[in-house]
Design a protein that fits this description.
Blueprint lengths: L1 E2 L6 E2 L4 H8 L4 E6 L2 E4 L3 H11 L6 E6 L1 H7 L3 H8 L3 E4 L2 H9 L10 H14 L3 E6 L4 H12 L4 E6 L8 H12 L5 E5 L4 H13 L3 E4 L3 H6 L7 H5 L3 H8 L1 H24 L15 E3 L2
Parallel strand pairs: 5-6, 5-10, 7-8, 7-9, 9-10
Antiparallel strand pairs: 1-2, 3-4, 3-11
């Protein structure tokens, strides 16, 4: 792996060797945290799988779920179903790894939206596929498109947009869907935050006319420089939330307090579930599996 200077995003090595390793698997191993199936894939395997999906006409939907996703899904039936029905849900946060470990079903590691975004665009570029950037702060999608174009010569940017989408307003959603669908992108990066990005993709995936749609949270803001990401050392120590809280205490203080209360309850439930799931082909002991 290598680190992009000044961005704090890790790029995993991808290529035919990784693809060959993944293709040997008949099923996608998952670990259920509550009702959410978290894919038990290494980072490079995740990039490889999504790269393969970019070559297929069937639209795919990916969620990058952190603890806040799980908390919100516990009281929001639509979000719970959106995560449960997604083609792939990754572990976007160290607390998700902790909960899996408490169940004696350890995950292979974090696979965050912020870490995925650059390798996925690199994979799209390598395959000659187009990318649409949707969301982020005003101007973040456009700035990110410039950033990507400077690093990946010839990258096909299908379009950019940073609209103020009201997920409860059908007309607002229709306008955003029409903007994206007109370009027929292969890879759609949706940076609207949870639950908005995941509900938007779940409701409109087929109308968006993309091959892969993935929610990436604040990733475009990180690339555009409007929000700083935590240093890699804090990320790896599971302390990225401390850095985020220091930047936006008013916005994030209440959310993190609720997340910690949920974490305590979820940890108790995870401990009680130890060894509940059986072992599937290609999965580690204690993991369930689903078709890739």
């Amino acid at each position: 792996m290598r680190l992009l200077a000044g961005v704090g995003i890790v790029i995993a090595r991808t290529g035919s060797d990784v693809t060959t390793t993944f293709d040997a698997w008949a099923e996608l191993p998952t670990v259920h945290i509550g009702t959410t199936p978290i894919a038990n894939l290494a980072f490079a395997q995740t990039v490889s799988l999504i790269g393969q999906w970019l070559e297929q006409p069937q639209p795919r939907r990916i969620a990058t779920a952190n603890l806040d996703f799980l908390r919100l899904a516990a009281s929001d039936r639509e979000l719970e179903e959106a995560l449960r029905a997604a083609d792939l849900v990754t572990a976007d946060g160290t607390p998700v790894l902790w909960l899996a470990r408490l169940q004696r079903q350890p995950l292979r590691g974090r696979v965050t939206g912020a870490d995925l975004i650059v390798p996925l665009v690199a994979e799209a570029h390598r395959r000659g596929r187009s990318v649409f950037l949707l969301g982020g702060a005003p101007g973040a999608a456009e700035a990110s498109a410039v950033w990507f174009s400077q690093r990946f010569s010839g990258l096909r940017i299908a379009g950019t947009a940073s609209p103020a989408i009201d997920i409860g307003n059908p007309e607002s959603c229709r306008q955003a869907v029409a903007t994206v669908a007109a370009t027929m992108p292969d890879l759609l990066l949706v940076a609207l935050g949870c639950p908005k990005q995941d509900l938007f993709l779940a409701r409109h995936l087929h109308d968006l006319r993309c091959r892969v749609g993935i929610g990436v949270g604040a990733s475009l803001d990180f690339l555009a420089g409007t929000v700083r990401r935590a240093p890699v050392a804090l990320q790896r120590a599971g302390l990225e939330w401390v850095f985020r809280l220091s930047q936006e205490p008013r916005r994030l203080g209440g959310r993190y307090a609720r997340d910690f209360v949920f974490l305590a309850r979820a940890a108790t439930q995870s401990f009680a579930r130890r060894g509940d799931a059986g072992t599937a082909s290609g999965a580690t002991p204690g993991n369930a599996s689903r078709k890739a």
